Amino acid sequence: MVLAAVASFVIGVIAERRARDMAPPDLVEAFEIYSQTAVDTFERDGGAGLAAYLERIEHASGINAVLINERGIEVSGRTPPVGAQELARRALEKMTFVNDFSRGIPLNAHAARSPNGAIYVLVGQDPGPARRPGRPFVGRGFFRVTLISLIQRLLPVLLIGGLFCYWLARHLSSPLTELRGATRELAEGRLTARVDEKLLKRRDEIGLLGRDFNLMAGRIESLVEAQRRLLGDISHELRSPLARQGVALGLARRRSGPEAASALDRIAREGERINELIGQLLALSRIESGTGGLENVKIDLSALVREVAEDADFEARSRDRSVRVEQSESLTISGVPELVRSAIENVIRNAVRHTAENSQVDVSLASESVNGDRFATINVRDWGTGVPENSLEEIFRPFYRVEDDRDRRTGGTGLGLSIAARAVRLHHGTIEASNAPDGGLIVEIRLPIDRAS
Question: What is the pTM of this model?
Answer without folding.
Answer: 0.49
